[in-house]
Amino acid sequence: MTSSGPGNLLNACGEGIFKMNSNWKTTKVLGLMMLANFFIYIVVEVSRSYGQGRDIYSRQKLTPKHFWKKPEVSPAFWNRVQDRLDDIYYLTVANASKAPNNLQGIPHQLNGTSPCKPDTRVTTEIEDFKSLPQRFQDFLLYMRCRSYPLITDTSKVCSKPPYLLLAVKSIATHFDRRQAIRESWGRAGIIDGRRIATVFLLGKTDPTDHFPDLSNMVKHEAELYGDILQWDYRDSFFNLTLKEVLFLEWFGTHCASAKYVFKGDDDVFVNTRHMLAHLGNISVHKTQDLFIGDVIANAGPHRTRHLKYYIPESVFRGVYPPYAGGGGYLYSGNLGLRLRTISRLVTLYPIDDVYTGMCLKRLGLVPEKHMGFKTFDIEEKHRENPCAYKNLILVHPRTPQDMIRIWSWINDPKAKCYIAPTQDTKGGKRHKKNK
Question: Where would you tag: which of 146, 274, 372, 401 has the fewest CB atoms within 10 A of its CB?
């Protein structure tokens, strides 16, 4: 048996105390180690947070300063009017199918009705208004007006759906040009198995512009040929854009079944047969967005005051979208209907072909350049060569006599031409010769 005397008890107590002291020291060491680890953790986390903070700060510096700030409104009048319109109708649909079918709610600048009165508020919104040329003052005062009644209508021109509608911009005094077009490239009826319809687009000659009164002559012409569309507005260069939107509205209402539309001036020659041949070779999937012509890109407003296309900085600032020269261009009827809708949401601009380019941009489209459109003419040495016109679609400018003469050339069954193409990767000229 083990003794349990006083000596043994003391020994046992000593051993217990020693063990307790040993355990306490171990606990203290462990505690200190834990504190040290915790301290290291804090230091590491603080360093990491600081580093992340610097990363965030550096990323913020890469973000544009005004990222969330609305861009400043342009001081130019047209830009400001369009900005206000865009604030109301944000165009997100490429084909403009969701654009409103009526003009309710659109700012007054775009919703003038006939009879239209001048909007005198523009005189206070444009700092240099009084110093602008008179044509600009007139345009700006009536810029919101885009609804005018027809004086002369032609209800039967599209009674049978045309394959190609020829819409020709003209003025009352240009009777000789219209007659030459009727007798040549604009002859209505069946050509190469396709139905062609022709309309001439006119405004009203104003005594202010020193025109003689030709209203009765135009009325008689309309009764005689049934191809005149004339609206009750002042026919002027800056109102060609108005003629554009009025035609699109008429087209959407009275001739929406036309498969293709050519729109051009009354001083161009058009090879209608070659145009039809070109359309016949276009694949179906390309017809919906078809818009071809002599395309001008990377252009902007002219700032030289005496030029025809002069635009003051107080009226417009920016660059022009790609656009087809107004001498003539060709587009599908489907696209014409979309242009009609989207034009209601684009402020009138004093240059009509630029305006059409603006409408196309709103639709997310770019006009396609076609080498057959020569709005700046062809080389002088080729102008008297009948074969030079065989593979062209449009040439500008040409007189009424030229139109009839060239039309007889390209329709002469005895005239034979061959084309000897030259190697030119840049789409160079082809040499045309008589055979």
Answer: 401
Domain count, the chain: 3
CB 136 within 8 A of CB 350: yes
CB 390 within 8 A of CB 384: no
Please indicate, yes or no, whether residues 385 and 272 belong to a single structural domain of this protein. Answer: no
435 residues of the chain, pLDDT tens digit each: 444 444 444 444 444 444 445 555 666 666 667 766 666 656 555 455 444 444 433 333 343 444 444 566 789 999 999 998 888 776 544 445 455 555 444 455 565 566 788 999 999 999 999 999 999 999 999 999 999 999 999 878 999 999 999 999 999 999 999 999 999 999 999 999 999 999 999 999 988 889 999 999 999 999 999 999 999 999 999 999 999 999 999 999 999 999 999 999 999 999 999 999 999 999 988 999 999 999 999 999 999 999 999 999 999 999 999 999 999 999 999 999 999 999 999 999 999 999 999 999 999 999 999 999 999 999 999 999 999 999 999 999 999 999 999 999 999 988 777 544 434 333 344 334 443
Per the CB < 8 A criterion, the answer to whether 114 and 232 are in contact is yes
Domain end point (choices 141, 171, 187): 141
Q: Are residues 347 and 224 in the same domain?
A: yes
